[in-house]
Design goal:
Radius of gyration: 18 Å
Number of helices: 14
Helix content: 40-55%
Number of domains: 1
Order of helices and strands: HHHHHHHHEEHHHHHEH
Number of strands: 3
Distance between the termini: 33 Å
Largest sheet: 3 strands, antiparallel
Structural class: mainly alpha
Shape: globular
Strand order of the largest sheet: 2-1-3
């Protein structure tokens, strides 16, 4: 987002609308709420004490699997509510079989389409990062895997039809890896906007996951998701050198659930 676009978004009228909504005076969520909050957060964090954002934030994010939960992602960024809680305080979710068939709200998306949405979102957010750079394949795979794990943990559903596989250096969505390199960038035009319209909850989680991965660093995130006890590490132990073996959804959901302990 360039300076002119920020000025258009962060005007007095929009600020008053956001305050009315956040304080409960208005019940209708503004259409620009996600972009407004993300832009404000990035501007605020870049007004720090002279240290790079990644250094400041990394001091507050625990290492290892405990960092990879929706709670930790939400705590590392300002934003809205977590996945919709039910009246008893538990996170509402679907039935167990939805982990195989896809839930009614989210379903199982085409992994390539979702990858384009992540790339599109990253591009819109990149101007607010300390050191803007194109999204790497490693970063893309990490964001997809974390979002996949969060929804298995929180809602017992898969967000893509494709399962992540055990590759030499971490979990990989193989179809995304192979097809994306042969795709035209025009295929991803408007993907983020479509995702926000179709599934604002998934859009919100991916925005936060991108911020988390950028701030923590893709190398550190890769170490987390391949650490001892992780689904990738267990798959490698059970199937040594059998690369491209699909990771078990049950193990992924369990690992992301347990990673929230103590947070």
């Amino acid at each position: 987002m360039d300076e002119m676009e920020r000025e258009i978004l962060l005007n007095t009228k929009n600020m008053e609308t956001m305050i009315s909504w956040l304080t409960g005076e208005e019940q209708q969520r503004p259409e620009f709420a996600e972009s407004f909050m993300t832009t404000m957060h990035l501007l605020y964090m870049n007004k720090g004490d002279g240290e790079p954002l990644s250094v400041r934030r990394r001091r507050r994010i625990p290492a290892g699997a405990a960092a990879l939960s929706l709670s930790a992602i939400e705590r590392s960024v300002s934003g809205e509510t977590r996945l919709s809680p039910s009246s008893d305080g538990e996170v509402s979710g679907g039935k167990e079989e939805e982990s195989r068939t896809g839930g009614e709200e989210h379903g199982e998306r085409d992994s390539l389409e979702l990858a384009w949405a992540v790339i599109d979102l990253y591009g819109k957010m990149a101007d607010g990062f300390d050191r803007p750079r194109p999204m790497s394949m490693s970063m893309l795979q990490a964001v997809l895997y974390i979002a996949y794990g969060i929804f298995l943990s929180e809602r017992k559903i898969r967000i893509t039809k494709e399962h992540p596989q055990m590759w030499r250096y971490g979990p990989v969505f193989a179809r995304v890896y192979s097809r994306l390199q042969r795709s035209d960038a025009e295929d991803g035009r408007g993907a983020a906007d479509r995702l926000q319209k179709d599934d604002p909850e998934l859009h919100r989680v991916i925005v936060r996951t991108i911020l988390f991965c950028v701030d923590r660093g893709v190398r550190a995130v890769a170490e987390d998701i391949t650490a001892a006890g992780s689904p990738w590490e267990k798959c490698r132990r059970d199937h040594p050198d059998k690369w491209s073996t699909e990771l078990d959804d049950g193990e992924i959901g369990k690992w992301f659930s347990e990673s929230k302990n103590g947070l």
